[in-house]
Design goal:
The chain is an all-alpha fold. 71% of the residues lie in helices and 0% in strands. It has a domain of 48 residues.
Length: 130
């Protein structure tokens, strides 16, 4: 993904047309660099713990399992605050799978209906090149 955001021709063409002071250009460049630094950070962390690819349940790899449990705790507290509901792991699993289903249906709809009709279109500019 990181390589594709740097070599995406539609975005590169649009970025050449606008000044750096244009907010969309600035946001896009910040987004590119942020994704690049995050990817490099995760790559370095992954290479430091290369043996965890095979033995994820070992004691040395326990730190790799913490972010997902911390995310679950954060989402649980958020849902309890917003809805006052008892948010369990089975509800989290259902919501995640339901969201994946909706996303997949939208992607299938786009690839069957919109892509053949309009082609690849960035809708990035208003100068008639869409």
């Amino acid at each position: 993904m990181t390589a594709s955001i740097w070599f995406w021709n539609d975005i590169n063409d649009e970025l050449k047309e606008y000044d750096f002071s244009y907010s969309l250009t600035t946001t896009t460049k910040i987004w590119r660099w942020a994704v690049t630094f995050i990817t490099l950070n995760f790559l370095i962390q992954s290479l430091q713990n290369f043996n965890c690819f095979s033995f994820i349940n070992s004691d040395a790899c326990a730190i790799w399992l913490q972010p997902s449990s911390n995310l679950y705790i954060f989402i649980k507290n958020l849902f309890n605050f917003l809805f006052g509901a008892n948010f369990t792991q089975s509800i989290a699993k259902f919501l995640g799978l339901f969201s994946l289903l909706i996303y997949t249906l939208g992607l299938i709809q786009w690839s069957i209906i919109k892509l053949p009709k309009n082609g690849r279109n960035s809708c990035f500019s208003e100068n008639g090149r869409n």
